[in-house]
Specification:
The structure is a single chain. The chain is α/β, with parallel strands linked by helices and 479 residues long. The chain has a domain of 268 residues: Amidase signature (AS) enzymes (Alpha-Beta Complex). The protein has an 11-stranded mixed beta sheet. Strand 10 and strand 11 form a beta hairpin. Helix 7 runs antiparallel to helix 16 and helix 10 crosses helix 13. The chain is globular. 59% of the residues are buried.
Length: 479
């Protein structure tokens, strides 16, 4: 089997080929290592060399299929920089729990992927190491903040990848790159060793070529971890989806997140409508539902997440690790280190968060945003009394041109309009590719109650089979 043929296999198919003896883990690793080393999208910040390819444990369920990992995860002895100059060259002494779990299951580390600095962004243009390019069109963004992971999978230089999702950072780049992205229920995957942005929202998840690969990777990610106080594990096991029917499934379509007046591009709405009709042909019933507080989700998120970031990023002071700018005095060293080390977006969010937590403003901003978050969770709970799943477009637009929104933070933040509510509620949500608009991929988002990952994956799989989207189109230009 040629290296090109190897990289065309899905991760699940590659694992089966290894288990049948048709392919060796070493061949698999070297094929992807060569593809990653030849990356022209700036998707990788570090790629393993040949000597760093560990042997997959005998009978490993993931079969030695290598894994690309977002730069936000600590990996022992390997640069873990969160896309930031303040951590440039930092090599932690330990590995994040989820990365270690996957390595033990037979998914060795292939490379570390580029990202928006500290996961703050929707386009991957906030990385201190340059923007990632979209493999469908290199003049456009891949989405963010997990843009490097999404672009690597879409371009075929990684069979699957780890990302993180705080307000949509797995699902939105998955949609813009034409792949699958899943945000699990908050707490089901350990955050230990994941460099923090907003601790009550951050969650690791898979970016893959198809729903089966997402289920396979997730099955070895979930589990309680005593080193993460928010870890709650997963009841039961993640199963590989097999259903080709949506018979009896009730889909709720919230006008607040999918109506014509909420800023969603016509081509994205057309693809969404076509997918709803396809769902009906598979046996689902589709009705409108209400999420009355969803329009306030973005405002609440951009109070809560920066507030948590303001606290989490206080540790980067030039004293314990990372960059240091000497200034002859302690306060000067703090100031100059943070000024030189953090990029503009990170500074903006630290200032927003610090302000909202300051004396006299806490109740007016942070406290009120927390109450909105509770209302949003209650809205979803009410919707799930009538519907099995709530569905929306994943992103309001297809991939936009590099630089198109960098001067307008609000326009950039609106890219997360459809994904932030699920993050605030802590529920699982998946994005699958559901067509093209102007030659660029669109995404269909499906979310369910907490711990409903198996049902979400089954429904997404049935839709995926019916849609028949060919992600290999992302590589048609050799990118």
């Amino acid at each position: 089997m040629s290296a090109t043929d190897v990289t065309l296999l899905s991760a699940a198919a590659a694992a089966r080929a290894v288990q049948r003896g048709e392919l060796s883990p070493a061949e698999l690793f070297q094929a992807y290592r060569a593809a990653a080393a030849a990356d022209e999208l700036n998707a990788y910040l570090w790629v393993a060399d040949e000597a760093q390819a560990p042997e997959a444990p005998a009978g490993a369920p993931l079969g030695g299929v290598p894994l690309a990992v977002k730069d936000l995860f600590c990996t022992a002895g390997v640069p873990s920089q969160a896309g930031s100059r303040i951590l440039e060259g930092y090599r932690p002494p330990y590995t994040a729990s989820v990365v270690a779990r996957l390595a033990a299951a037979g998914a060795p580390l292939l490379g570390k992927t580029n990202q928006d600095e500290f996961a703050m962004g929707s386009s991957n243009e906030n990385s201190a190491f340059g923007p990632v390019l979209n493999p469908w069109d290199r003049t456009r963004v891949p989405g963010g903040s997990s843009g490097g992971s999404a672009a690597a999978v879409a371009a075929g230089s990684a069979p699957w990848a780890l990302g993180t999702d705080t307000g949509g950072s797995i699902r939105q780049p998955a949609a813009l790159c034409g792949i699958v992205g899943l945000k699990p229920t908050y707490g089901t995957v350990s955050r230990y060793g994941m460099i923090a942005f907003a601790s009550s929202l951050d969650q690791a998840g898979p970016l893959t070529r198809d729903v089966t690969d997402a289920a396979l990777l997730l099955a070895h990610m979930v589990g309680q971890d005593e080193r993460d106080s928010t870890s709650i594990g997963f009841p039961g096991e993640i199963a590989l989806p097999r259903s080709d029917s949506l018979a009896g499934i009730r889909l709720g379509v919230p006008e607040e997140l999918s109506g014509a007046g909420v800023g969603i591009e016509p081509g994205v709405l057309d693809a969404f409508g076509a997918t709803l009709k396809l769902a009906e042909s598979l046996g689902a019933t589709v009705e409108t539902c209400r999420l009355p507080h969803a329009p306030h989700a973005l405002s609440a998120y951009y109070v809560l997440a920066p507030a948590e970031a303001s606290s989490n990023l206080a540790r980067y002071d030039g004293v314990r690790y990372g960059a240091r700018v000497e200034d002859g005095g302690l306060v000067g060293m703090y100031t100059q280190t943070r000024s030189a080390g953090f990029g503009p977006e990170v500074k903006r969010r630290i200032m927003l968060g610090t302000y909202s937590l300051s004396s006299g403003y806490y109740d007016a901003y942070y406290g009120r945003a927390q109450r909105v978050r509770t209302k949003i969770a209650e809205d979803f709970a009410s919707a799930f009394e009538r519907f099995d799943f709530v569905v929306t477009p994943t992103s309001p637009s297809v991939a936009f041109e590099l630089g198109a929104k960098t001067a307008d933070p609000l326009s950039m933040y609106l890219n997360d309009y459809c994904t932030v509510p699920m993050s605030l509620a802590g529920i699982p949500a998946i994005s699958i590719p559901n067509g093209l608009s102007a030659g660029l991929p669109t995404g269909f988002q499906l979310c369910g109650p907490a711990f409903s990952e198996n049902r979400v994956l089954e429904a997404a799989f049935a839709l995926e089979q019916a849609i028949g989207f060919d992600a290999a189109g992302a590589r048609s230009d050799g990118g």
